[in-house]
């Protein structure tokens, strides 16, 4: 049975209370805005590249604990990553949150594992994936608006 | 804001003292209330989204399917006659429930949303010219915003919005000021689903009519909680949904004054709404059939009657009295939760406690309460402009029905203390 303690792990609460890299960066090369109209989560992701790797990534917005913590952990995991690594992490996170089958087991999830408990709360999966989809769109298409619906 | 507002609403809705409901007995009538969620008794506090059904409604649907089912209005055979009679009896029941003068004023729809869209398309659109105005309030459900935006786009008319106060009370002087010679229609909610505010609709109707302006009332939240009499109110249209008043889903009602309905063209075309069809010309049926094209929600219509009988059997005054007591109790408990802010603090409210917590997002509140078997709604409640007005992304909303208990209110607040433990 789904357990609340698996969802609201200490690290998730910490990141939701004190989100890292929580700032806007209007000058960033890639900016995207995501929203989940069902629950009102909103997040903007700002990405700057240095050649093929992510030099800086930050976010802003207002969302539930899961969304905020996911965004915060994401910025930490992606800073300095190559595009390829970022893509693999994106896919791994997506699968960790849905079917648990990681397509790129060689790319370690590290701290992102703490979000695994969200899988047991299907209605909350979108909260955790919203920042990642928003990042993906900032990286691949420049500025645009992402919606989970 | 003058004190006339709550008083007026009180006169509309609040009852003389009545013998209280036997809630424990009432609960026996609702099979789903026996259900466990995650091993804990269900505490269902999402009644504003949809109510639960008493056994009489469930049995009526079962009996129809097992014994009396056939299409209606079309057959000479026995079953068709039986089903047609039951469906049409339901129309009479609805007429009685809302105090309409004539059964032809009761149009069956899919729900409040379809009722409002019908008026927007059949009544408003043909009359609207560029520069005309439709007036709504700042506390409307999307169902009473978007249909008007669509007809405004189609006709060049303009949507005006009467503002609300920080308590969630309609600013009556602004409302009155926005009624102008350009106003072609007013559409306003009776009871707000996001705030719980009961609007002084009697006064609003008078003001609109003083300017010769017709008015539609969105009664989705009012019909299950208050005594409604459309003749006394003198509104032009009144819309509500079966599923929020212990009836089936997929059935709703549009009440319209007969003179309006008779003058309105059909909205959808098909079977039942016609008189004579040739390829050259079709003549339309009279109201209400003119607006009921195609095979309707037969079981929904038929099982609405036992839902109404059930509510009337309990008594709308007793229902309102108990729900008010629950709301007052919950409001009092809320004051003891640190960092809790109630959104919607009008003196005249029905059954809705919408709130935010400093420490936790509504979505997280909803998940933690669900673990305790407590069902509330979190989000924008299809009223995004209300969220913007109060500058919150979303709220948590507990909404009470007459089958809820004080113990369930206690469970809600025990759950909220758990939220504080996790996030505080
Ligand atoms: C005030 C109000 N108006 C309209 C509606 C729409 O009702 P339905 O979805 O039954 O058409 C609702 C339902 O949430 C409501 O609360």
Q: N- to C-terminal separation of chain A?
A: 27 Å
Count of discrete alpha- or pi-helical segments spanning 4 or more residues of chain A: 5
Shape of chain B: globular
Distance between the termini of chain B: 37 Å
Count every helix of chain B, treating DSSP H or I runs of 4 or more residues as helices. 15
Return the string of H and E elements of chain A: HHEEEHHHE
Q: Describe it for me?
A:
With 149 residues, chain A is α+β, with helices and mostly antiparallel strands. Chain A has one domain (2-147): Alpha-Beta Complex (Sufe protein. Chain: A), CATH 3.90.1010. Chain A has helices at 4-7, 10-17, 65-78, 83-98, 125-141; strands spanning 30-36, 41-50, 53-62, 144-147. Chain A has a four-stranded mixed beta sheet with strand order 3-2-1-4, covered by helices on one side. In chain A, β1 (30-36) and β2 form a beta hairpin. In chain A, α2 packs across α3, α3 crosses α5 (125-141) and α4 runs antiparallel to α5 (125-141). The longest helix of chain A is centred in the C-terminal third of the chain and has 17 residues, at 125-141. The radius of gyration of chain A is 14 Å and the shape is globular. Chain B has 424 residues and is an alpha/beta fold. Chain B folds into two domains: 7-34 and 315-423, Aspartate Aminotransferase, domain 1 (Alpha-Beta Complex); 58-312, Type I PLP-dependent aspartate aminotransferase-like (Major domain) (Aspartate Aminotransferase, domain 2, 3-Layer(aba) Sandwich). Chain B contains 15 helices and 17 strands. Chain B has a seven-stranded mixed beta sheet, with helices on both faces. A four-stranded antiparallel beta sheet of chain B has the order 13-14-17-16, covered by helices on one side. In chain B, strands 1-2 form a two-stranded antiparallel ribbon. In chain B, α4 packs across α11, α11 (298-314) crosses α12 and α13 crosses α15. The chains are: A alpha+beta (149), B alpha/beta (424). At the A-B interface, loops of A face α13 of B. Residues 111-113, 141, 143-144, 189, 193, 218, 220-221, 241, 382 of chain B line the site of pyridoxal-5'-phosphate (PLP). Residues 111-113, 141, 143-144, 189, 193, 218, 220-221, 241, 382 of chain B line the site of pyridoxal-5'-phosphate.
């Amino acid at each position: 049975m789904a357990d609340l303690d698996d969802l609201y792990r200490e690290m998730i609460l910490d990141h939701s209370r004190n989100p890292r890299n929580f700032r806007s960066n209007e000058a960033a090369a890639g900016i995207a805005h995501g929203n989940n109209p069902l629950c009102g989560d909103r997040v903007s992701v700002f990405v700057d590249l240095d050649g093929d790797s992510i030099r800086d990534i930050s976010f802003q917005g207002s969302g539930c604990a899961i969304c905020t913590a996911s965004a915060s952990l994401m910025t930490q995991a992606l800073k300095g990553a190559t595009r390829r690594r970022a893509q693999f992490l994106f896919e791994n996170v997506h699968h960790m949150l849905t079917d648990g089958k990681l397509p790129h087991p060689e790319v370690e999830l590290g701290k992102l594992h703490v979000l695994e408990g969200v899988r047991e709360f299907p209605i909350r999966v979108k909260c955790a994936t919203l920042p990642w989809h928003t990042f993906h769109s900032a990286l691949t298409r420049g500025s645009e608006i992402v919606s989970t619906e | 804001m003058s004190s006339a507002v709550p008083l007026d609403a009180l006169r509309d809705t609040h009852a003389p003292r009545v013998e209280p409901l036997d809630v424990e007995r009432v609960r026996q009538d609702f099979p789903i209330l026996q259900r466990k969620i995650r091993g804990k008794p269900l505490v269902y506090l999402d009644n504003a989204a949809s109510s639960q059904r008493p056994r009489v409604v469930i049995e009526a649907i079962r009996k129809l399917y097992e014994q009396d089912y056939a299409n209606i209005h079309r057959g000479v055979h026995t079953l068709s006659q039986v089903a047609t009679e039951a469906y049409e009896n339901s129309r009479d029941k609805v007429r009685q429930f809302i105090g309409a003068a004539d059964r032809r004023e009761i149009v069956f729809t899919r729900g409040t949303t379809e009722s409002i869209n019908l008026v927007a398309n059949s009544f408003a659109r043909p009359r609207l010219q560029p520069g005309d105005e439709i007036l709504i309030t700042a506390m409307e459900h999307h169902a009473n915003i978007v249909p008007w935006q669509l007809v405004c786009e189609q006709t060049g008319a303009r949507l005006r919005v009467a503002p609300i106060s920080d308590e969630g009370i309609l600013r009556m002087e602004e409302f009155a000021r926005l009624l102008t010679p350009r106003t072609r229609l007013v559409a306003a909610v009776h009871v707000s689903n996001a705030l719980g505010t009961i609007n002084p609709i009697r006064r609003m109707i008078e003001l609109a009519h003083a300017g010769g302006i017709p008015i539609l009332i969105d009664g989705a939240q009012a019909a299950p909680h208050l005594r409604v009499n459309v003749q006394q109110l003198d509104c032009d249209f009144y819309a509500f949904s079966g599923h929020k008043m212990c009836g089936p889903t997929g059935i709703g009602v549009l009440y319209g004054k007969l003179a309006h309905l008779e003058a309105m063209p059909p909205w959808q075309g098909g079977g039942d709404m016609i008189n004579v069809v040739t390829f050259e010309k079709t003549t339309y049926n009279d109201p209400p059939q003119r607006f009921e094209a195609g095979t309707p929600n037969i079981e929904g219509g038929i099982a609405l009657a036992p839902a109404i009988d059930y509510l009337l059997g309990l008594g709308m005054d007793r229902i309102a009295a108990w729900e008010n007591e629950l709301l007052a109790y919950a409001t009092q408990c809320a004051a003891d939760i640190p960092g809790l802010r109630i959104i919607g603090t009008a003196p005249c409210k029905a059954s809705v406690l919408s709130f935010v917590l400093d420490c936790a997002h509504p979505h997280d509140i909803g998940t933690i309460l669900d673990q305790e078997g407590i069902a509330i709604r979190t989000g924008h409640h299809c009223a995004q402009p209300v969220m913007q007005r109060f500058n919150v992304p979303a709220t948590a909303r507990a909404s009470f029905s007459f089958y809820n208990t004080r113990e369930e209110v206690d469970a809600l607040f025990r759950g909220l203390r758990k939220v504080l433990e996790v996030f505080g």
